[in-house]
Amino acid sequence: MRRPIVAGNWKMNGALSDAESLLDGVVSGLDGDLNCEVVVCPPFILIPAAAKKLSGTPIIWGGQDLDTHDAGAYTGEVSGYMLKDFGASYVIVGHSERRSIYGESDNLVAEKFQQAQKTGLTPILCVGELLEEREAGHTESVVGRQLDAVLAMVGIEGLKNAVIAYEPVWAIGTGKTASSEQAQEVHKFIRTKLVDKDVDIANGLRILYGGSVKPDNAAELFANEDVDGGLIGGASLKAQDFLGICHATQNQDQD
To answer: Is 95 labeled as catalytic in the residue annotation?
Structure first.
């Protein structure tokens, strides 16, 4: 069974007081028998406060990025070992904003994926197409290329301890959302592509949807056979919205 994940990516948002209030709201609103795994990924500077606040709760946390090196003269960077030392379980790699704004290539994303696993973190690998790529009918070729870069570096075995997040770039922070059918179509493509390499790994892999997920559309998205939860942006900054999305995973375990 694939247990759904709802992961909140706070991006570059939140003062210390905001973070503490948000986490208090999420922790107090979670049910003991919640169906999903709940993850939050705060900005680096808020990690110590988040780690302290989440200690002893069912919520786990991760980083939004990591460097490809273990340590050294890399001003401004954070290593996977640093994240792990503070108690991180996950780290996002290849988010569309890292790819588009900071020019991260498929190969660099693959290196970060490999480094995450080397340091004991579970990478959440983001893949997805631009609007013009979708309109040109290139969604599968773009997503396939992004996956192939990681597979070339770590092989299919590297996806045993990993999560994939499909994020159509045109739906991130725009208020637009891929339809339930569009999301399932790409998620199925990803799983089918990997089934050809290893059936068990492909069927056990959790594939999240990211792109303007809200409490009022989450249940429909998560009801799809190959959608195993969500990577949540803006809605993760409001406790009630984030909790609503978490509750939308009820009865969504997949075989």
So the answer is: yes
**C-alpha distances out from residue 4 to 70, 111, 230, Å:** 31, 26, 8
What tokens does 45 get? 């500077």
- In sequence order, what are the residues at sequence separation of 6 or more whose Cβ sits closer than 8 angstroms to the Cβ of residue 112? 65, 66, 67, 68, 93, 94, 104, 123
Encode burial over 135-170: b for 16+ CB neighbours within 10 A, e otherwise. eeeebeebbbebbebbbeebeeebbeebbbbbbbbb
Cα distance between residue 82 and residue 6, in whole Å: 24
Hey, what long-range contacts does 181-188 have (CB within 8 A, 24 or more apart)?
183/209, 183/221, 183/224, 183/227, 184/224, 184/225, 184/226, 184/227, 186/139, 186/140, 186/143, 187/224, 187/226, 187/227, 188/225, 188/226
108-135, pLDDT tens digit by residue?
999 999 999 999 999 999 999 998 999 8
| pLDDT of 90 strictly over 70 | yes
Domains in the chain, please, with CATH? 7-28+36-65+76-247 (3.20.20.70)
Q: How many Å apart are CA 102 and CA 109, to the nearest integer?
A: 12
Contact 81, 119 (CB under 8 A): yes
Instruction: Kindly name the residue from 95, 133, 187, 247 that is annotated as catalytic.
Output: 95
Provide the pLDDT for residue 170. Answer: 85
Question: Model-level pTM?
Answer: 0.96
Instruction: Write down the residue that tokens 């939050």 correspond to.
Output: 40
| Catalytic residue chosen out of the listed positions 37, 104, 167, 187 | 167
Q: How far apart are CA 53 and CA 160, in angstroms?
A: 30
Residue 132 bears catalytic tag: no
Radius of gyration over every alpha carbon of the chain, rounded to an integer in angstroms: 17
Please name the residues in contact with 97: beta carbons below 8 A apart, sequence gap of 6 or more: 11, 172
